[in-house]
Amino acid sequence: MTTKTRVLLVASLALAGSSAGAVDVRQVVIPDSVGVAVEPAHQAHVLGEAIRDSQVKRTPTIWIISEPSRTRALMPEEEARLDAIDAEAAEEARHVRTTLLFGFDKSSPSDWAALDSTIAEAVRAGSVVKLVGHADDVGSDTYNQRLSENRAIAVARYLIKRGVSKKNIKVAGRGKRDPVSIVDSSMNRRVEVDIVKAAGKTL
């Protein structure tokens, strides 16, 4: 071995010895679904994200159970509730309601058209016509009570002239009680018409 070769060999060994503590910088890709345990002494040598989710992510299983439809007997309380709903619907079907509006301090409505469309039901045998007059809040209670009654009476006379039996008409006045609007007083000057048809008769 020549002197030159010996010098190169010694230098190489010295360089290798001085770098014995160097860190291996090769990177290893670790799947997110795999947990990795690193010894504390080597944690500083690990190259990677500061935070890694090392737990396996699992999606909860959702069970869907399908069952064919089937019939069953109603419980007594269910049957009673359905009977009550049917009875309420049947009773509501017997009523034909409309409203006539009046001008300020007037006892005749602005338009009879809403009432004319219900005359056929009003003259039918067994029908009862309920007329309830109302007034706005201008004036005394006594005056408005009388005005509301006069409005209902005017509607009753109109119905009688068109063939409705007088004995089948009921008239009442509510004065300025029971307003339907606190913004538009013209909506309170009204007669509410409720034609109640005989049981078992519908439109």
UniProtKB/TrEMBL annotation:
Keywords, comma-separated and alphabetical: Cell outer membrane, Membrane, Signal
Database matches in Pfam families: OmpA
Entries under Gene3D superfamilies matching the protein: OmpA-like domain (3.30.1330.60)
Subcellular localization(s) per the UniProt record: Cell outer membrane
GO cellular component: cell outer membrane
InterPro entries: Bact_OuterMem_StrucFunc, OMP_bac, OmpA-like, OMPA-like_CS, OmpA-like_sf
Coiled coil: none
Ranges where the OmpA-like domain occurs: 89-199
N-terminal signal peptide: 1-22
Full protein name: OmpA family protein
Species assigned in the record: Pseudomonas helleri
